[in-house]
Known about the structure:
- It is a single chain.
- The chain is mainly α.
- Helix content is 73%, strand content 5%.
- It has 6 helices and 2 strands.
- The protein has a two-stranded antiparallel ribbon with strand order 1-2.
- Helix 1 (7-28) packs parallel to helix 3 (54-71), helix 2 crosses helix 6 (141-164) and helix 3 packs antiparallel against helix 4 (78-98).
- It is globular and about 45 Å long.
- The two termini are 28 Å apart.
Amino acid sequence: MHRKMNDKTLKKLVYSALFAALTCCATMLRFPAGIGYIHAGDAVVLLGAFLLGPWWGAFAAGLGSAMADLLAGYALYVPATFIIKALMALAAAFILKRAAIKKTAVKAAAAGIAAELIMVAGYFCYDCFVLQYDLAALGDIPTNLIQAAFGVVAGVFLYGAIIKSPNFKEI
C-alpha cells in the first residue's frame, strides 16, 4: 500500500538531508591533530539538532559526519562516528527542549556542552576499547576538547542568530 508523505515530514527530510550535507562539508574542512583532526562539523551537528529536533537532527548528524569520515579515508571510524554524532544530536535536542533554563543561549550552551562531552567520551572509548589504543587514546582528548569548544561556541552563536532573524520559521 502506498502512503503519501505529509508536507511536514517531507520538509523535515529535506532539511535533514541539507544538514547532513552541511555537516559533511564542515567536517571535511579540517586541521590535522593527533590521531585525527579538528573540524567545524560539530557546530553544524549542534545547529541541526537545535533546529530539526532529536530524531531528524540525529539522522543528519550521524549520516553527514559518517560520510565525511568515509570520504576522508577514515573508514575505520564510520560506525563509531555515526553513533557518536547521532547521540550528540539526540542529547543536544532533548536538553534544549527540556532544560529548565530560561535564557535560550544558556540552554543551548548547556545542551551543546553535554553533547560535546558525549563526543569526547565516545571517541575515547572507541579508541581505547575497540581500536585497542589503550591509554594512548588519552592523547586525542585535548584536541577533541578544542573541537568541542569551537562546536559549542559556533553552534550556539549560529542558532541564536538564526532564531532572532525576522524571517525565521520553525522547521
